[in-house]
């Protein structure tokens, strides 16, 4: 059973997450040869102030 964790900046619409979940599930099943019910996808919303790249918080990049 694959479990996929996706971390995104908070604020993405549910429709976007649903579309991504469907695409990830479809491709996981194609590559791994598993059934859709075996694929778990966890979305973790992250505040921009809790994510840094290159030593700079994303909240400071706006």
TrEMBL record:
A GO molecular function annotation here is: isomerase activity
Where is each 4-oxalocrotonate tautomerase-like domain found?
A: 2-58
The record's annotation in InterPro entries points to: 4-OT-like_dom, Tautomerase/MIF_sf
- What top-level branch of life does the organism fall under? Bacteria
Pfam families with a match to the protein in the record: Tautomerase
Q: What is its EC number?
A: 5.3.2.6
Q: Keywords, A to Z?
A: Isomerase
Q: Do you know which NCBIfam families this protein is assigned to?
A: PRK00745.1
Please give the name of this protein.
4-oxalocrotonate tautomerase
Species whose genome carries this gene: Crenobacter oryzisoli
């Amino acid at each position: 059973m694959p479990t996929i964790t996706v971390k995104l900046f908070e604020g993405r619409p549910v429709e976007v997450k649903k579309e991504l979940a469907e695409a990830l599930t479809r491709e996981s099943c194609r590559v791994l040869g598993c059934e859709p019910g075996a694929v778990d996808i966890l979305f973790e919303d992250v505040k921009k102030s809790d994510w840094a790249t290159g030593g700079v918080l994303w909240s400071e990049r706006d």
